[in-house]
Amino acid sequence: MSSPLPVFAAVVVAAGSGSRAGGPKQWRLLAGRPVIRWSVEALLRAGAAEVVVVVPSGAEPEAAAALEGLSGWRTVAGGASRAASVRNGLAVLGGPGDRPVLVHDAARPLLSGAVIDRCVRALDEADGALPALPVADSLRRESAGLVAGAVDRDGLWRAQTPQAFRLETLIDAWAGWPAGEPATDEAAVVQRAGGRVRIVEGDPRLMKLTFPEDFAMAEALIPRRTRTGSGFDVHRWGPGDAVWLCGIEIPHDQTLIGHSDADAGLHALTDAILGAMGDGDIGDHFPPTDPQWKGASSDRFLLHAVERLHARGGRLVNVDVTLICERPKVKPHRQAMRERLAGLLGLPPEAVSVKATTTEGLGFTGRGEGLAAQAIATVELPDA
Ligand SMILES: Nc1ccn([C@@H]2O[C@H](COP(=O)(O)OP(=O)(O)OP(=O)(O)O)[C@@H](O)[C@H]2O)c(=O)n1
Ligand SMILES: C[C@](O)(CO)[C@H](O)COP(=O)(O)O
């Protein structure tokens, strides 16, 4: 087992305007969580004693909303460039001069504890640490749209963050940096000041969100676990001339009795989705004693469960509903039910199954006293 990490602090720069991404990206949701929250959580989880989050001037309320519920962080206003923002962050960091400090881009949300560990430990034998990945593609120089030559990729690395240094090393290196000269990152500044910056193994998931399409790529890189939930519901038959099943109104010589529209298919499905998330059941979210749900269309129960799933960064994979009744005949309505459910759930129809069975005249469904529905939902939830 490795020794505990020394006490370290972090500066997370999030004061950019995201011009290449089409707008500020630090507050955008990635798998249900604001981009900035991913890194701050990862740093706090790894044991950071203090995290200074550098945000655009006046954006403190956005930061407070994005980081709600976390403690151990504070904000400072950023500057006109990334370098200026880093320096503003360092200026408010406390602690002894030899304290390890990680400087990290909020735009690299998928930060693992393993990378943090490697960066901090590298300071045992270097003045700085830079996580990086070797360049895998061959490189070309271009001129006027034509290949002008090949560039030897040997010894070339793709630099990432967090970059680690001791506080005084970083402050001294910045102090010696020529005023007005643009700085790529802290590794460049410390190296120019004569420091030895160790390359440590980076992580492909630490990609920087730079362009709009990067968000979909980052979503795809998030590890997810698959969960399954089941739901079951029964409603009693009573006088009426139509019945709601799986979001479709079917003319019938009876109706299902319930506090809401009594759509047992949607109720079972709502419970299956809540069950897959471990998020209680439909009665917890919509108590039958609450008059506001009297006669309610059950679409909203289902949509509520789906919204809760999305808020956790989860996504539906497929659903399967079985209706158990002697009448009405479900088969003529199955395709319409699948399409309706697919529309409500945002799934392709092939990921939605609706089935029906009788109980051969047996039991309460067989005697025509009530209709039962059962459902299964499979979801994927972010691992971290
Ligand atoms: N004045 C700035 C500029 C950038 N950053 C931060 O530096 C990181 C890397 O910068 P980049 O990806 O270039 O972000 P933006 O500056 O927001 O994007 P763009 O260059 O497309 O405008 C981001 O976390 C960004 O918020 C910062 O804190 N202050
Ligand atoms: C610091 C950095 O993330 C290292 O790769 C990068 O240089 C910052 O982003 P930019 O796109 O170069 O502004």
Structure commentary:
- This protein has about 375 residues and is α/β, with parallel strands linked by helices.
- It folds into 2 domains: about 10-220, Alpha-Beta Complex (Spore Coat Polysaccharide Biosynthesis Protein SpsA, Chain A); about 225-380, 60s Ribosomal Protein L30, Chain: A.
- It is built from 12 helices and 19 strands.
- The protein has helices at about 35-45, 60-65, 80-90, 115-120, 165-175, 185-190, 215-220, 265-275, 280-285, 300-310, 335-345, 365; strands at about 10-15, 30, 35, 50-55, 75, 100-105, 130-135, 140-145, 145-150, 155-160, 165, 195-200, 225-240, 240-245, 250, 255, 315-325, 350-355, 370-380.
- The strands form 5 sheets. Strands 1, 4, 5, 6, 7, 10, 11 and 12 form an 8-stranded mixed beta sheet that branches. The chain has a 5-stranded mixed beta sheet with strand order 16-13-19-17-18.
- Helix 5 (about 165-175) crosses helix 6 and helix 8 (about 265-275) runs parallel beside helix 10.
- The longest helix is centred in the C-terminal third of the chain and has 14 residues, at about 265-275.
- The chain is elongated.
- About 40% of the residues are buried.
- The mean pLDDT is about 95.
- The chain binds cytidine-5'-triphosphate and the ligand C[C@](O)(CO)[C@H](O)COP(=O)(O)O.
